[in-house]
Specification:
Blueprint: E1 2-6, H1 15-29, E2 33-41, E3 65-70, H2 74-87, E4 91-96, H3 102-112, E5 119-124, H4 134-144, E6 149-152, H5 155-165, E7 171-173, H6 188-195, E8 202-207, H7 216-226, E9 233-238, H8 245-254, E10 261-264, H9 273-279, E11 282-285, H10 294-301, E12 306-309, H11 314-317, E13 324-327, H12 331-343, H13 347-357, H14 363-374
Parallel strand pairs: 1-2, 1-4, 2-3, 4-5, 5-6, 6-7, 8-9, 8-11, 9-10, 11-12, 12-13
Length: 377
């Protein structure tokens, strides 16, 4: 097939760009013709809470990426829709994660489909976001009505799509594949040395953008409760703060954790992920709400047990007391599981289970989901 993915990609950074580029490579490996059409303007600067939207890494040499879409210009959306209609891809994949992009994607898809050839199948990371707004009620249905089908990464997202679309058909679920391009696993000694950390401590890793729904406050309070029971435990927070860092530093002090928390308030480039995951004994995701998370799939790649909260699709992926924990999003539940993991030698058996489970999350499963939607299976 001729396939065009419409969404974020290089020169933009972050997990969604990484996901789209890896998906494009999978389609290419299966013999398809693939292009990524990305933004000339993704977010207006005043709407973007981070330091920069752009990657500092080299452009991927193996992918065709075109910068065409201005998220704020309806006249541009018409031009992009007409260009897609003329290009006649067999499959247009709109990579959707928030309602801000729904008007653009919805109009472009409607125009592209007028050629009578192109099918539009949305790849939906989040249908209803972690931090909802009025835009979701206004714009999301417009986008949903423009698509021939959907691929969701969790059952919870699929249910949201079906509710908006008023149908259960045309929605496939394929769990988030494993990010497998971050290099080989480092030993803990090697990783700690690279990060300038002692290797005789136990480390839990909170990785990724720091936002309210990710529950770092719950984790800090839980850590404060168990710090005396786990004297060698340290917490690494590695990711850019999209909230005020001072709020969390005040909580760290209040919980008596000043010497137990390492903060790296910066966007972590792909080349450094293996260092942080290599140093970690446990990956922690104490989210208050979720759909699914790319962090769990990085943890799978590096074969690291996880503590997640049982919200959204996280509990679908992390099997409780087998490869880690899927607990309630509460301080007592998180605290109990931290003590269980670090006092009862859970790392080795959980890692062995995780190694077997990771084979389920191949990228070919995701591309197969698109094929099934295309063929109305």
């Amino acid at each position: 097939m001729k396939i065009i993915l419409l969404g974020t990609a290089y020169p933009y950074r972050g997990g969604l760009a990484t996901f789209n580029e890896r998906l494009a490579r999978q389609f290419l490996s299966e013999g398809h013709e693939v292009e990524l059409w990305t933004f000339t303007l993704q977010y207006p600067s005043f709407l973007f809470p981070g330091k920069t939207q752009y990657s500092s890494e080299q452009a991927p040499a193996d992918l065709t990426i075109r910068r065409v879409l201005n998220s704020c210009n309806p006249f541009n959306w018409i031009r992009v829709g007409r260009a897609l209609r003329k290009a006649e891809p067999d499959l247009l994949i709109c990579c959707y994660w928030m309602a801000f992009f729904a008007p653009a994607y919805g109009l472009i898809s409607r125009i592209a489909r007028r050629n009578g050839k192109t099918k539009t199948v949305a790849l939906v990371h989040n249908m209803m976001p972690h931090e909802p707004s009025i835009l979701d009620k206004l714009f999301a249905p417009y986008f949903v009505a423009s698509q021939d089908g959907f691929v969701a990464l969790s059952e919870s997202v699929a249910e949201q799509i079906s509710s908006l679309a008023g149908r259960s058909g045309g929605v496939a679920v394929s769990p988030h594949p494993i990010y497998d391009h971050y290099g080989e696993r480092m030993t803990k000694t090697e990783a700690c040395k690279a990060l300038g950390l002692p290797d005789d401590k136990q480390y839990m890793l909170f990785f990724g953008l720091v936002r309210a729904y990710k529950g770092l406050d719950l984790l800090l309070d839980a850590f404060g409760q168990v710090k005396d029971k786990l004297p060698d435990l340290q917490l690494i927070i590695a990711g850019e703060f999209y909230e005020h860092e001072e709020k969390y530093r005040a909580q760290i002090e209040a919980d008596g954790l000043n010497n137990r928390v390492i903060i790296r308030n910066e966007f972590i480039p792909d080349a450094d992920l293996r260092k942080y995951f290599g140093a970690a004994d446990l990956i922690v995701q104490p989210y208050k709400s979720a759909t699914q998370s790319g962090v769990t799939q990085v943890a799978f790649h590096f074969e690291k047990p996880m503590l997640v909260t049982n919200v959204g699709g996280l509990g679908e992926i992390v099997h409780d007391h087998k490869m880690g924990y899927a607990c309630e999003p509460s301080v007592p539940a998180i605290a109990d599981d931290l003590v269980d993991y670090f006092t009862n030698s859970r790392q080795e058996p959980y890692t062995e289970y995780l190694k077997k489970e990771k084979t389920k999350y191949a990228w070919s499963n995701l591309t197969r989901a698109f094929t099934k939607i295309m063929n109305n299976e």
